[in-house]
Amino acid sequence: MEHMNYCCECGTKLILKECGAEGMVPYCERCGEFRFPIFSCAISTAVLNPAKDKILLIKQYGRDFYVLLAGYINKGECAEHALVREVSEESGLKIVDYRLMKTAYFPPSNTLMVNFVSVAESEDLSHITDEVDEAAWFSLDEAVENIVPDSLAEQFLKNIVRELRENPHLFDGRTPDCTL
């Protein structure tokens, strides 16, 4: 397992030290603290329209492929609040329901991705911000065809579409609190 070489607090070279059942863990002798791996956390979501038969895909950063809406979780923020905030910031849409689907580590950016499926209050894309180059609603099948291939976004999307088809009552019952 890859580990840090220097303390994230004081910059001192770390040593490996036994940490109970954790085994050998980087340790800062100056701070007297074990230093476990540090990584970013982000959300991604397949945003569904109110009828739950279309998925919003976006293009960003001048790239010519569609992805799921995503964004980093701020320090002190829970993933659910990041979901509601990111969707609002990028699309202007209000999330009225969501479900946690899956998590996966994304090595290129050293990020734990927390994937949701969410439901927007409307299909109105008139408030898309300049963070998004293009946004469009796709049927479930069209979304799978248009998502960037061989990507974590594609894996998440295929899992969501499969779950929606196998469990048509996914959003029946208690609605989570989506307010900030």
Could you walk me through the main structural features you see in this protein, from its secondary elements to its overall organization?
By secondary structure, the protein is an alpha+beta fold. The chain is 19% helix and 32% strand. The chain has helices at 79-91, 140-146, 152-166; strands at residues 15-18, 24-28, 33-34, 40-48, 54-59, 69-72, 95-106, 111-120, 134-139. Strands 4, 5, 6, 7, 8 and 9 form a 6-stranded mixed beta sheet that branches. A 3-stranded antiparallel beta sheet has the order 1-2-3, with no helix packed on it. Helix 2 (140-146) runs antiparallel to helix 3. The model has no long low-confidence stretch (mean pLDDT 92).
Shape: elongated
Largest sheet: 6 strands, mixed
C-alpha Rg, in Å? 19 Å
Intertermini distance:
37 Å
Percent of residues in helices comes to 10-25%
Question: What percent strand?
Answer: 25-35%
Strand segment count: 9
Low-confidence stretches: none
Whole-number mean pLDDT: 92
**Could you state the order of secondary-structure elements as H and E?**
EEEEEEHEEEHH
Structural class: alpha+beta
Number of helices: 3
